[in-house]
Amino acid sequence: MTNRLGWFAVSLLLPVKDQKPQSESPTLDGAADRKMSDTRGHPAAGETIAERYRLERLAGIGGMGHVFEAVDTRLNRRVAVKFISTATDGSLHDSLMLEARAMAGLDHPNLCRVLEAVIDTTDPFIVMDWVEGVDLRSAAKSLDLIQRIALFVRIVEAVSSMHDEGLTHRDLKPGNILLNRRGEPVIVDFGLAGHTAKGDLKSGGTPGHAAPEQFNEPPSISPRCDVYSLGVILFELLTLRTPFSAATHAELLKLQRTADPPVPETIVPDLPAGLQRICLQALERDPALRYADARELLEDLRRHLRGETVLARPSMLAARFEAQIEEQLDRARHWESQGLITREESRRLYRQLTSLLRPDSPWIIDSRKLTTSQVGLYLGGWMTLLAITVGMWFSWDDLSPTLHIAIPSAVTALLLGLGIVLHINHMKRYALGFLLTSSVTTPALVWVILRETGALGRIPDNARQAEIFSDPPQGFANVQLLVISGAWAAVSLLLRFATRSGAFSFTFCIAAVFCWLFLYATQGGFARPITDESFAQLGMRFAMFGGTLCAIGLALSKQEETIARSVGRQNLRRHDSWPILTTGTVSVVVGLTCAAWYNPEIYRFPQIFAGTDASMTALRSQSFIANGFVFAGLAAAFGKRWSPARDWLGSALRWIIPSHFLGSLLAMERSELGGMWLGWLLALGAFSIIMCFVSVLKQWKPFLINGLIYFAIAYVRAFDRVNDHFSHAPNLRLALFGGLIVFGLFVMIAAWKLPDWLAGTKTWLWLNSTRKKIGDRLAIDPFFGDSASPR
């Protein structure tokens, strides 16, 4: 309704003129009694042709014919009659027939209709609707930007209908688009239109508006030519000027082939960024970089109108952006080499900047925005999931057995079907919402089927103690849970390959974790009663599972980086290594931690303190220290090749590693392992200091922060020990207090003076080495260094 009101307003604001022809020639508004010579041999105004059409006046001269305003005497209506003006030959007949068939096969309110074609006559002609209106360029001057864009959308819709029929116009320009009395744009003059499959048609077109490849020898004709012309029209609607201007057609064509158009916002500030990108994408010099046809252009326009991120990424803007990013990367490396920033800061900058070169698809960006539409997708999907899980659970007895399966099946099928349709129609953000919901409803559907049919639900008496649930409800037996999670993993994997969306890599990883858990359960891992050994075994299983995922993730990461180097990071659309590496790392960390806690003998350390009350603490501490070495090895594996995912996970592991060493020493101190606490306390303080200085090697701030924190803990524990064991000696507390002040000041002064001493020592060694070399040379060559000596 809003668009119709806008078009009605246009019809009230604009003056009414006559239909204009296809050519660059001005409209001819002469009298009705023009002479035969004016029409170059065609019937003159006042004549009646085909015993039906009375020619009123010559409306204009086009590149391929003359256009008359006429009256259909049978139906008493105004029409346009177009005569061919070229020499009569075989190609004339074919061209005229081609135009007639092209236009007659179209049925769109914004395309001028063909009413009749009379071909087999000495003066072949086509009869079309007569359109009274004003051309688009004149109209645009009286409209605001919103009205101009509304008209442009209608124009693109009309061209899209042409392209759907395999036709191209090849001469789209404001002069061939008229606004009728209702304010509707109408595309006229199909003198150059033709099937894109035809290679023998005249390419023509107007320089400055037609695509540059239309003037090649031979011309290259495709729907992308019309896309270029639509880009010129959009540029003119945004800025009220054409993208290129020159004194001659040759100069204009050269500009189109060699120069980038100006960015519209440099002419009219504060233009919508989405429209500007759409315009520049359509104006790409290379046809392969443009929209494939008007349908793709229309879809991007609709994305902009919906407030979504457009797909357009013009090469000229992308090239500037990538050049600026590369320049910043070079600067970051230079800043690091000059000592202006640290290596860690340089890596952080590099990670952030390279992530900008690898942008997510626009629909993924939109899926992360909390718009009303996106929140509706989240909320609707969550409601649907709750309905067929919680709702189905509590309403089970109120529903017939048929509905038990029919309802979740229908819901899942509907979600999956709508998601597939939306994905095929390139509405990927909405498709992701429906397909993800269908993915998470799949386990509920499989559960309902297993519960209703009782399949895999029989549990032998001797196996009941191994069930996760002591008395499993219907559908929750170990084998059934394995099938449910397996179905979820399979559906997620299929959707991942069908949609090429990394979102399903996450759901697959989650489903795979449950699969691994329930596979362990089916093998008797949860035999009653549950023991520490069973949890330890589960932890080791998860650690092995995580190690496998890490190996797969590292291989995928290497492959993705290879692809990124060959096609460019901005074109990389595969990001599977990130969820797989993350899931694998978490599984390894959680699994080994669980195993080290519940079965500290996993590493088969000798029980040095066997027989003491603290033997378990000792074994656990040793196991956690061993885990620290494992995690350090994993972090080193991540650091062998750089990628954003590896760098991030390596950083996360570096926060965990110090606690496995220092935390174990703290545990030994608290438990007074071996009947002593002082040695462990001193070891905790010493290794905390060492951990701080280890951070220097790789610029690992997590090591520094952990070292400082554990040193503070060791200091607090020292006061606790003094209070517990030497409460009668307050001088020890004063010694701890004053001693740390003195030691701290000493360390600060050493940090101040030591570098100077080291630098002086290094300089002395260099000078001493230089003097020795000179002395040795003089001993061999007495004239060394004597510039006046003859050589």
The share of residues in helices is: 55-70%
| CATH architecture assignment of one domain | Orthogonal Bundle
- Unreliable segments of 5+ consecutive residues: 1-39, 195-202, 609-614, 787-791
Strand content: 5-15%
**Terminal Cα separation, in Å?**
100 Å
- Structural class given helices, strands, pairing? alpha+beta
- State the strand order across the main sheet: 1-2-3-4-6-5
Major sheet summary line: 6 strands, antiparallel
* Total helical segments: 23
Overall 3D shape: flat
CATH superfamily of one domain: Transferase(Phosphotransferase) domain 1
Description of the structure:
With 791 residues, this protein is α+β, with helices and mostly antiparallel strands. Among the domains are: 18-131, 2-Layer Sandwich (Phosphorylase Kinase, domain 1), CATH 3.30.200; 136-312, Transferase(Phosphotransferase) domain 1 (Transferase(Phosphotransferase), domain 1, Orthogonal Bundle); 319-357; 730-781. It is built from 23 helices and 11 strands. The chain has helices spanning 2-13, 90-104, 136-140, 145-164, 223-239, 249-258, 273-282, 294-305, 315-337, 343-356, 362-368, 372-394, 401-424, 428-453, 478-499, 503-522, 532-567, 577-598, 615-639, 644-670, 678-698, 701-725, 730-780; strands at residues 48-49, 53-61, 65-72, 77-84, 114-118, 125-129, 134-135, 167-168, 177-179, 185-187, 194-195. It has a 6-stranded antiparallel beta sheet with strand order 1-2-3-4-6-5, covered by helices on one side. Helix 16 (503-522) runs parallel beside helix 18 and helix 18 runs antiparallel to helix 19. It is flat, with a radius of gyration of 40 Å. It starts with a helix and ends in an 11-residue tail after the last helix.
